[in-house]
Design brief:
Elements: H1 8-14, H2 16-24, H3 29-49, H4 56-79, H5 85-104, H6 112-134, H7 147-160, H8 163-191, H9 200-205
Helix pairs in contact: 2-4, 3-4, 3-5, 4-5, 4-7, 5-6, 6-8, 7-8
Keywords: Membrane, Nucleotidyltransferase, Transferase, Transmembrane, Transmembrane helix
Transmembrane segments: 56-76, 97-122, 162-184
Protein name: Phosphatidate cytidylyltransferase
Length: 210
C-alpha cells in the first residue's frame, strides 16, 4: 500500500547534491518547510485562476517543488544535526497547511461542500499515522492516496479541468488510505511488537524528523 511513496529513497538520492549545497550554505530546515507551504499556495492560485490545460505546467512545477522541499527539510536537519522536536511539529503543521492550501485551489472549480469533504478526507491518513506514532507504533506513510498521489491528482485536475471527479477520487482514496493504515496499525499494536516508548519512533520516522 506504499504507492508512490515507495519511490522516496530513489527521489531522496536524486536530491543529494542539493542537500549538500544547502548544508554548506547553512540554510535552515525550517525555511525549507516554509518554502514548501509557499509552493503549495502558488499551486493553489494557479489551479484556481488559470484555465485548463494552461494551469497544468505551473501547478505541476510548484507541486514538484512542494514535494522536494518536504523531502529536503527533514533530510537537511538530519545531515546537519539540527533535529529538534519543535522542528518536527513545524514539519507536520507545514504538511497539513500545504495540503489544505492546494485543496483551496479547487474552491473556484467545484462546490464548497465537495472541497470541504475532500479536505477532511485528505487529513485522515495523517491523523491515523500520528495517532499510531503517539502510541509507539512505527510511522506509516504512503498510499494508495498519500501526499504524492494527492499532488498528482491536483495536476490532473489542472490539465483536464475535471475538478469534481478528481475531488471524488481524492476523497475516496484518502479515506481508503486511512482505513488501510488503521488496519495495519491495529495489527501492529495487537501483536505487541516492541516499538519503543510512545513518540520515540514518531520523531525518527516523521517526514522532517527534526
Amino acid at each position: 500500500m506504499n504507492g508512490l511513496y515507495a519511490l522516496k529513497p530513489w527521489y531522496a538520492a536524486r536530491l543529494g547534491g542539493i542537500r549538500g549545497a544547502l548544508a554548506r550554505r547553512e540554510v535552515s530546515p525550517d525555511a525549507l518547510t516554509a518554502a514548501g507551504v509557499l509552493s503549495a499556495a502558488g499551486a493553489a492560485a494557479a489551479l484556481a485562476w488559470l484555465p485548463a490545460p494552461l494551469a497544468a505546467l505551473p501547478v505541476a512545477a510548484l507541486l514538484a517543488a512542494r514535494l522536494a522541499f518536504a523531502n529536503l527539510d527533514g533530510a537537511l536537519a538530519r545531515d546537519t544535526g539540527r533535529c529538534t522536536r519543535r522542528g518536527s511539529v513545524l514539519n507536520e503543521l507545514g504538511d497539513r497547511a500545504a495540503d489544505l492550501l492546494v485543496l483551496a485551489g479547487f474552491l473556484t472549480l467545484a462546490p464548497l461542500w465537495l472541497v470541504a469533504v475532500a479536505a477532511l478526507a485528505a487529513t485522515l491518513p495523517s491523523w491515523v499515522a500520528l495517532a499510531g506514532a503517539a502510541a509507539g507504533a512505527p510511522r506509516r506513510n504512503g498510499g494508495p492516496v498519500g501526499k504524492t498521489e494527492r499532488c498528482l491528482l491536483a495536476v490532473v485536475a489542472a490539465a483536464t479541468g475535471w475538478a469534481v471527479p478528481v475531488l471524488v477520487v481524492l476523497a475516496a482514496g484518502s479515506a481508503l488510505t486511512a482505513v488501510l493504515r488503521l488496519a495495519w496499525l491495529w495489527r501492529q499494536l495487537a501483536e505487541g511488537e516492541p516499538v519503543g516508548p510512545a513518540g520515540s519512533v514518531a520523531s525518527a520516522e516523521a517526514g522532517a524528523a527534526r
